[in-house]
Structure formats: C-alpha cells, structure tokens
Design goal:
Largest interface: A-B, 76 and 110 residues
Shape of chain A: globular
Distance between the termini of chain B: 76 Å
Radius of gyration of chain B: 51 Å
Oligomer: heterodimer
Shape of chain B: extended
Structural class of chain B: mainly alpha
Number of helices of chain B: 31
Strand order of the largest sheet of chain B: 1-2
Helix content of chain B: 55-70%
Largest sheet of chain A: none
Number of helices of chain A: 12
Number of strands of chain B: 7
Helix content of chain A: 40-55%
Distance between the termini of chain A: 54 Å
Radius of gyration of chain A: 22 Å
Largest sheet of chain B: 2 strands, antiparallel
Strand content of chain B: under 5%
Chain lengths: 254, 842
C-alpha cells in the first residue's frame, strides 16, 4: 500500500529503530509478511524484521525456508542490500538441525546464481558455501562423489523447482564452482580451488567480505607491488593488428 | 709466575673438543692493569674536574702527519721569521740574518764547498773536458780525440804518422759500415723469409679467391716488411672474421628465434596457470631484459612502421601478409606478396639513413624469410627486390621527401607534455613516427645517464597524447594506430615505468567512476580514450597471466564498467560491446570465465526485443526487465531491415552518432546485433570446456531460440544468428561427478628418535637464521650491559678510594701542622717561662 521508495526506507530502519521501541512488536507481523510476499528487494529487506519477530517473539512462519529459497535470484548478487541479506542467510542456515537436502538446495542454487555474479560477490559467496559445507558435512557429496554415475547428460538439479526438497540438489555436483575455478580474477579462482581439497575444520570469517566493493578490489590490485612486469612478446602491428583480432572484424579505425 | 697470584678456574667436567681460554686467571695482574688505566684516565679527569684552563699545543703542524719533519721545520722557521719581522728588527739595519741549511750556516757550507772543489779538481777536470769536447764539437771530434789519445799514449809519434793512421782509420770505418749494411740486408731477407712462412700459414685460412692480388701486394711492399706484415695480418683477420659471421646462417637464426619464442610461450603458460610464483620470482629471466641492451626490437619494428606501395601508404596489405606469413601457408602464389613485404622493409630501412647496421639487419631478415619460403630462387628474387626498391624510391612522393629532409636528425627528449605536443603538432603521421624514432635513438639509455628517466617520461607523454587524439571531435585513430608501435617499443624497454604510468591512468579512471557512482548512483561509460588505453594494455602485456600487475586491475575495471554503467543510448551499447570484445581478447588464450561478459551479451539481446514479459531468464544489473531504455536496439522499420548491410563499426561513431539519420541509426543497431551474435558465438567457443557451460549459456539460449524474431531479420542477419545458435546447440552435455583431491596421508607417530644435525654445541637449534641472530644480539646486549655496570662500579670504588686517600692526606697534613704550631707555641712558652724564671732569679 506504500510507494516502493518509502517501503524500502521503512524496512531498512525497521529492525533497529522501530521494533525495539514498540510495546507489541507482533503487530508488525501482518505488515512484514505482506512485505515479504512482495518479492524482490522489498522481500530481502523485510527479512530482517521478520527474523527478529521469529527469534524473539515466537512467530511461527510456515514454509519460511521455502520462501527464502525462492528469494534467491540472480539479482541478489547485484543489489545494494547484498551484505545485509547474506548476513541473515548466514544466520538462518547456521542451525545444524536443518535437513541436508535443504542446505544442499541452497548451496546449489547459490552457486548456480554465482555464474552471473561480479567478482566481489563471488569472493564473498564462495567462503560462504565452504562454511555451509563445514556445518553440514552431509552435503559434501556435492563436491565429493567418488562412486557417482559416469557420463551424465543432464544436471540432476532442477533450477525451476520452488520446493527445495524436490530440487534433487543432493544428486548433483557443484560444477558451477568448478567453472569458477577458471574465473578471470585470481582471488576468485583461488577461492574456488579450495573446494577441490578437503576443507579445514575452522569456519572462514565472512563478515569482512560481506561489504566488499568492486572499487576496493580494484584498489587492492592496483596497489599490489610486483617484482617484475612480464611483457607481451608477440610483435604488434598497430592498434588492431594482433593475430585473429576480434576488433578488426567489427570495428574500423575511422 | 708466582703461584700465589694465579687463580685456577677448575672445571667440573672435561669436555672433549672444547677449547677453554679462561682456565687460569691472574687477578693481581689484571687489577694492577685496571688501576693503572684508571689513574691515567679517570684520575686525571677527577683532578681536573674544576679547571677551565686547557693546555693548547700551538706548534705548527705538530699533528699533521702529511708533512715531513723537514717541511715542518721550514714552515716553523718561516713563521718565526714572520713573527719576528716587524717587531725587533726595524731599527736593526746592520745585522744580517744568518741563513742556515740543516741548521748549519750557509756561509760555512760555502766555504766547505770551495775546499771540496779544489780537492777533486785535478782528476775530474780532465775527463770532463774530454767528454765535453766530444759532445759539443762533434765535427772534428775524431781527429781531436785521436790526437789527444795519441798524445796521451805515446808521446813520441808526430803529425805525419797520425795522418796516415787517420786515412787507415777512415778506410776501416767504411769497411765496417759496408759489413754492417750487409748484415742488415741479410737480416731483412731472413725476416721476409719468415714472413713468407707466416703468410703460407695464414694463406690456408684465406679463401683461394685472391692469391694473385696478394702476391702483387707482397712484391710491391717488400721493402717495408713491418707495414706489410701488419697489412697481411689484417687481411688474415678479415678473412677469418667473415666466415665466423657466416656461421650463423639463416636457418640457425630462425632456429634461435623459434627457440626463443618457444621459451617465451612456455613462460607465458606457466604464468597463466599461476603456479610456482615463487620460483618465477627467483629467476626473472624475461626476454625483454636482453632486448633492452641493443635496441634490436626497436630497429626491427621500425622497419615495419611504414610501407609504401606505388607511392602511397600501404598498411592493410602488409598486415595481411604478416598474417599469411604466420599461418605459414607455403604457397607459390605467395611469393609475390613476400616480395612486396621485402621491398617495403628494404625501403623503410632506406629511410632511416642514419642506421646502416639496421640496413644490414633488414637484409638479413628478408633473406631469412625468403629462405623459408623459397630457397631456390633466392638470388633472383633479391635482384628483383632491388629493382623494385629502386623503382619505388623514385616513385616516392617528392613532397614527402622534401618534408622529410626538413626534419632535423636529432631531437632532445621533451621535458613537458606541452613541448612534446608542439613537437608533433602539424606533422604527418610518418613524420611524427620518425621524430619519435629519432628521439629514441638520440637518447638511448646506453648513451647518457639521464636518458632512461627521460624516455620513461616520454612514454607517459605518448599515452597522454594518444588519449587526447582519441577524445578529439574527430578522433585520429589512424595516428593512434601508428603511435602504438613506439609505445610498444618504449614499454619493452622500461616495463616497470610503463606499468606504473598505465596503472596510474587506470586508477584515475576507476576513481572517477567511483565518484560518479557515489554521487549519482550509477556510472556512465568512459570516453574513447579509456577504451583505447584498455586495448593498448592488451597489446603491451600478456593478458593470459594468472595475476599481472596491470592486466588484473584492468580486468577489474572493465568488469565494473559492464556491471555499473547505465545503458541509455546506442553509444553506450557500442562501448559496452567494445569492452565485451576486449574481455574476449583478454581471455582468448587463458579461456578464463567472465560472467560479466555473458550478462552483458544477454542484456544486449534483451534490449533488441520488443517489450513483452520475459520468461525463463533474468537480466542482471545494468539492464532491467522493465524500464524506459528497453527496445534500444529494436528495429521495426521494414525498409531499413531490408537495406541493411553488415559493416564494420567505425570507432568514431561513439562521438558523432547523434547527427546521423534514422536509417543509419537503424543500420548501426542491426550491426550491433550482428556483432552481438558473433560475440556470443565466440564466447561459446571459448567456454565450451567449462563444466557448467550449459548453465552459463542457458539464458542466452532461451532468448535466442524462443524470443528472437528470426523471420523478420534480413538474410545476412539470419546467417549470424544461425551460426551463433549452432555454436550453442552442438555442444554435448557431459557431466562427470566431482571428486575431491585425496588428502596426503598423515604419517603415524613413531618411536625412532628424530635425528637432527647438530651444527654447533651450546646453541639452540631449529630456529630460523633471523631468530638466531636476534637471540645472539639480545645476549650480547645483556653481556655488555653487565660489563658496563661492573666497570662503573669499579670506577666508583676507585674514585672513593682516591677521595679517601686525599682526605687522609689532608688530615695528616693538618695534624702535622697543628703539631708543629703547638710545638712552636710550647717552645715559645718554654722560652718565655725560662726567661721569667731567669728574671725571677735575678
């Protein structure tokens, strides 16, 4: 019933400026559930208030995880509220009593979506996934399936399935992370390569990575000192003069 | 010595192999030593503690070790004289100064000298005179001497006899001279003979071609054997030198080049995988280090800069040829092309008049190429090229020649960007290149000290200049295209400086973008200059490295461009596609995965579709599923659709698109779309091997197969479309389950003792060298501190002792004085009493 901008503003401050001062925070239940149901960024924001209600005021939310699961779409890696969202998801998935199929579905979906993510988000989500593996060792089949069927022609995981239990995530493998081992950013590639080895016991601390921005990453790389600068040895013959230059096919120098 | 003065430090255990220094101590001796030292230093200070006066040695040069004592004495004497000069002797006119030498008065010495002279007179004078006459009056010397000697030896013989003798003597002399001449000739003959032998030895080294000529030379120059010898030697060496140059034949050169390239490629692959970075660091044997020294590459590609064909510039052709060459199609029909290439190279070589060496080299190189292509008719070909060359030289534009001759041959490296710009302003591309080349040659780092820094600056100027050219209203891409070559050369010479300046540019650009995003929320695409810089990076540095100080930041920057910049106009789309292109080029060798690239291509496809509810895919950040800038690439006009021809996009379209007509806009849109299809095809080919290729390409495939209105497209576009779809479709789906790498088994704990090499006893082992050093330092400091404290304590004791003895001495003196006084008083008293008694008696 509110305009989108206002909605967002309200939801951003709800959890720390409004809810603690209300006599009966439970009155907000309706507001929050409606907001949660809208989808997109508003749902992400409503999550925070909802969490407080569930955590401190005994709110029972049916199909909470299913809803959370359906919130995961490609935009989560690109929106402004990424840090807040992943902080909460981390909280929700920290319980060790969650069924393996659910966590596996989350892992699989997150990594599938990571295929479109920018490097700063990847640097955050890969350790995140590693942590999930540490908490739920039953999910390790996703990265280690020694006697699995050879030569599958399809990924068993069903991306379109809304219900985590039916997504067949546990039958799949994390080929997405394997692909990311070829990522252009060296740190991402390194982080993804960690999943090839057996994980250490201690969880990574991702709180510092949540707020990582692209510019910070860039700055870090620019300031890194190099002992030597390797050079291109192929002779050049002008701006578009490389061998098989793609530019020469599509651009002219006029 | 005295056994009571010796203290023995008894050892509890005897340890084999340990040397002990301090098993016997001499406390008495060392104590007395210490006390002596203290009396010399501390006591002195103590005694002088309240004295401000200082004894100053003003003797001249007393502490100057450089002066000899004699000099010192002389100077001192001079000083003394100076001091005394004005004071006493003003009125003392008569008194002469007595001059001395070594403390003796000169007058006396003179006297002595006289005596000595007179003593040695008789003998010496005679001999001297004889010598003198011989030396000074040489003409009649023989005669006189004769006379003198005869006079001395036998006094009886008279003049006539002497005359006869004289004649005899003369005859004998002439005979002797003759003999001498003969012997000299003989020795000369001997020498020539020896020379002949030598010559024969050398002759084996010389080719058989020119023996006749050599003979002639020999005959002509016989009288001067030395010179001739020299010349022959030279000839010999020359002949020897030639074959050694020959040794490196074209094949060998080619092989060397190939080996070099192979090594470089292996190096690149290693860097691409990003393993063993440490090892890499340890042996920085990158090829460019060699190239720096001789400026070899510099010359080599300067020759490629220009090529004229029939009097006008011919670049494209050459490029093609180069490509052909690299593909190594060994076809007969290619010979002509190669000829052209050669001739062009020859020509450019001709142009840089200064560098003969380069000329030679180009010959060699062209030889090399021709050898590879067609070894048989090499000579023939060369002749041909020469002919062509001469023709072409004639054909060269006379204006150009004139202009070139105007250019000075030496240029100083410009100190500021303004001077640099003014240097290049108003010149043609060729002239600019020549200027740059000459600047580089004139201040090659091997020539002078500061040249390196200057040339490094020049690199920055060049980049700035390129940027300026790119941002002009009518960008001069042709010039940039040429200027890239000097940039490349400079970069090869100074990789560090080049990377620094490029990084600086990148940082600036990224910083600007960050500021804009903070203010406005979204960034806009940068100007053409930045795009050109990004392209230049790919030319200068290997983009396939796992990590590279320049390329990695460039990657990050481009990723930001594709994710953060808002797309509102057609120009933005073109710029975005340009960056996609860059991405593809950057990863073309390493095949790294770039999610942003796929996202952007998806977005471009998305905006080319009519508005409707998209299903089955989601576009991400810069693109929105709903919004105002949809349909940016949508073309509805049937006529435009039909009249469209695929054309290459001119780069300058980015700046001047607004002025074009609707139809042209539509055509550009379609070109962009075709471009996009091609990029999709290329990236599909590139990422084929990724395990989740299908997932990555899934949204694009859905869009292509379900939403793109293929039927409305013109025929050409359909071709592009189908080739892209085909590339996507015909990949097999194949998934193999992932398996973790096996852990290394942890060895069981065992009871056998661990054996460690003991390097030194009494030292803690198993710590790093640095740690050991630190510990040693700490210990040494402790020891020194203890020693210092002990010394101070002893000093204090010594001082206290001294003070005590002083006090005692003083007290003693006082007591003695009091006693004396009392004694004298008592005596007085006694006397007085005695007197009194006397008086009383009396």
């Amino acid at each position: 019933q509110l305009p989108t901008g206002l909605y967002k503003k309200v939801l951003v401050i709800l959890h720390d400026s409004i809810l603690p001062y209300m006599n009966e925070p439970t009155l907000m239940i309706d507001f929050l559930t409606v907001a949660y149901g809208i989808g997109g960024a508003i749902s992400l924001l409503a999550l925070n208030g909802l969490f407080i209600l569930i955590h401190q005021h005994n709110l029972e939310y049916p199909d909470f995880y299913k809803k959370l699961y359906s919130l995961l779409d490609p935009s989560i890696y690109h929106v402004k509220y990424r840090a807040r969202f992943f902080h909460l998801v981390d909280l929700f998935l920290s319980s060790s009593h969650l069924p393996a199929y659910l966590v596996a579905a989350f892992i699989k979906r997150l990594s599938r979506l990571a295929l479109t993510a920018p490097p700063e988000a990847l640097l955050m989500v890969i350790p995140f996934i590693c942590n999930l593996f540490r908490r739920h060792p039953a999910c390790k089949v996703l990265v280690h399936r020694p006697n699995g069927p050879e030569g599958m022609s399809e990924d068993p995981y069903i991306m379109e399935e809304e219900e985590p239990s039916k997504s067949r995530a546990l039958e799949s493998c994390l080929w997405e992370i394997q692909s990311l081992q070829n990522h252009y950013h060296p740190d991402v590639a390194k982080a993804a390569a960690v999943l090839n080895q057996s994980l250490s016991e201690i969880e990574d601390d991702i709180s510092g990575l949540l707020e990582l921005s692209a510019y910070e990453l860039f700055d870090k790389e620019v300031k890194r000192e190099a002992a030597e600068v390797p050079l291109e040895f192929e002779q050049i013959r002008g701006l578009f003069g490389k061998k098989n230059d793609i530019f020469a096919e599509h651009f002219t120098l006029d | 010595s005295n056994p009571f003065e010796v203290k023995v430090n008894r050892q509890k255990f005897n340890i084999l192999g340990r040397k002990t220094k301090n098993d016997v101590g001499l406390p008495g001796v060392s104590r007395s030593k210490a006390i002596k030292k203290r009396t010399q230093t501390l006591l002195k200070e103590y005694k002088e503690r309240e004295k401000a006066n200082v004894f100053k040695d003003k003797r001249f040069g007393e502490y100057n070790t450089k002066m000899s004592p004699e000099e010192k004495m002389i100077r001192r004497f001079a000083l003394e004289r100076q001091q005394n000069y004005g004071k006493k002797n003003i009125y003392n006119l008569n008194e002469d100064e007595e001059l001395t030498h070594y403390g003796q008065s000169l007058a006396e010495i003179e006297k002595l000298n006289d005596i000595v002279d007179s003593d040695s007179d008789t003998e010496e004078r005679g001999t001297l005179s004889a010598e003198l006459t011989a030396a000074h009056f040489g003409g009649g010397g023989g005669l006189l001497r004769k006379k003198a000697s005869s006079g001395q030896q036998d006094e009886e013989e008279e003049k006539p006899k002497s005359r006869k003798e004289l004649i005899e003597e003369m005859i004998a002399k002439s005979k002797q001279e003759k003999q001498e001449r003969q012997t000299r000739r003989e020795s000369a003959l001997e020498l020539t003979e020896k020379l002949d032998n030598d010559w024969k030895e050398i002759q084996t080294l010389i080719a058989r071609k020119a023996p006749k000529l050599e003979r002639k030379d020999k005959e002509a120059e016989k009288p001067k054997p030395d010179e001739y010898d020299m010349i022959v030697r030279e000839l010999g060496f020359e002949m020897k030198a030639k074959p050694s140059e020959r040794m490196k034949t074209e094949e060998e050169l080619a092989k060397e080049e190939q080996a070099r390239l192979q090594k470089l490629e292996a190096d690149r692959l290693r860097r691409m995988r990003g393993i063993d970075e440490e090892v890499n660091r340890k042996k920085p044997s990158h090829m460019s280090a060699d190239d720096l020294a001789d400026g070899f590459i510099l010359d080599k590609d300067d020759r490629r800069l220009l090529s004229y064909k029939n009097g006008k510039i011919d670049i494209e052709n050459e490029e093609e040829e180069e490509k052909n060459k690299e593909e190594e199609e060994e076809e007969e029909g290619e010979e002509e092309d190669n000829e052209n290439e050669e001739e062009s190279e020859e020509e450019t070589a001709n142009e840089d008049e200064e560098d003969n060496a380069a000329d030679n080299h180009s010959d060699l190189e062209s030889d090399l190429e021709s050898e590879e292509e067609a070894a048989g008719n090499k000579d023939q070909k060369k002749q041909k090229t020469n002919e062509n060359e001469s023709q072409n030289v004639k054909k060269l534009d006379p204006n150009m020649e004139a202009a070139k001759s105007e250019l000075p041959y030496t240029f100083a490296v410009p100190e500021s960007y303004e001077t640099f710009k003014s240097l290049l302003a108003g010149r043609t591309i060729e002239q600019q290149l020549i200027i740059l080349e000459r600047i580089q040659k004139c201040s090659h780092p091997s020539l002078a000290m500061g040249n390196k820094a200057k040339l490094q600056k020049l690199f920055g100027f060049l980049l700035e200049y390129i940027g300026e050219l790119a941002t002009m209203d009518l960008p001069e891409f042709r010039t940039i295209d040429k200027l890239v070559l000097p940039v490349y050369n400079l970069c090869q010479m100074f990789p560090e400086a080049a990377s620094d300046s490029i990084k600086f540019i990148l940082r600036d650009a990224a910083h600007d973008m960050e500021e804009v995003t903070e203010v406005k929320g979204r960034a806009t695409f940068p100007g053409l200059d930045t795009l050109i810089y990004l392209k230049i990076i790919s030319l200068l540095f290997p983009t396939s490295d796992f990590w590279h100080p320049v390329v990695t930041p460039a990657f990050m920057y481009m990723s930001q461009l594709l994710t953060k910049c808002r797309i509102t106009t057609l120009q933005d789309v073109i710029k975005g596609l340009f960056i996609c292109c860059l991405f593809l080029e950057y990863v073309s060798l390493s095949r790294r995965f770039v999610p942003e690239l796929i996202n952007f291509l998806l977005g471009v496809l998305h905006i080319s579709l009519p508005k409707k509810q998209a299903q089955g895919y989601t576009v991400v950040h810069p693109f929105t599923p709903v919004g105002k800038n949809l349909e940016l690439l949508l073309v509805c006009d049937k006529k435009d659709l039909e009249s469209w021809q695929k054309q290459n996009l001119p780069l300058s379209i980015v700046t001047r698109l607004n002025e074009t007509s609707r139809t042209e806009m539509n055509h550009t849109r379609l070109s962009c779309l075709a471009f996009c299809f091609d990029l999709i095809k290329k990236s599909a080919a590139l990422y084929e091997s990724l395990p989740s290729f299908h997932e990555i390409m899934h949204p694009i495939r859905i869009l292509l197969t379900q939403y793109v209105p293929v039927n409305e497209y013109p025929e050409k576009m359909k071709e592009w479309y189908h080739s892209a779809v085909q590339e996507l479709e015909n990949k097999v789906k194949h998934y193999t389950p992932m398996v973790c790498e096996k852990k290394k088994p942890v060895p069981l704990k065992q009871y056998t003792p661990k054996i460690v090499k003991v390097l030194e006893f009494g030292r803690k082992q198993a710590s790093s060298k640095k740690e050991q050093e630190r510990k040693q330092l700490i210990q040494r400091h402790k020891r020194e501190l203890k020693g210092a404290i002990r010394e101070i304590r002893k000093d204090n004791q010594f001082l206290a002792r001294m003070q005590l003895s002083e006090i005692m001495e003083r007290d003693l003196a006082r007591k003695r004085k009091v006693k004396e006084l009392l004694g004298s008083l008592a005596a007085q008293e006694g006397e007085w009493k005695a007197m009194k008694r006397k008086k009383g008696k009396n």
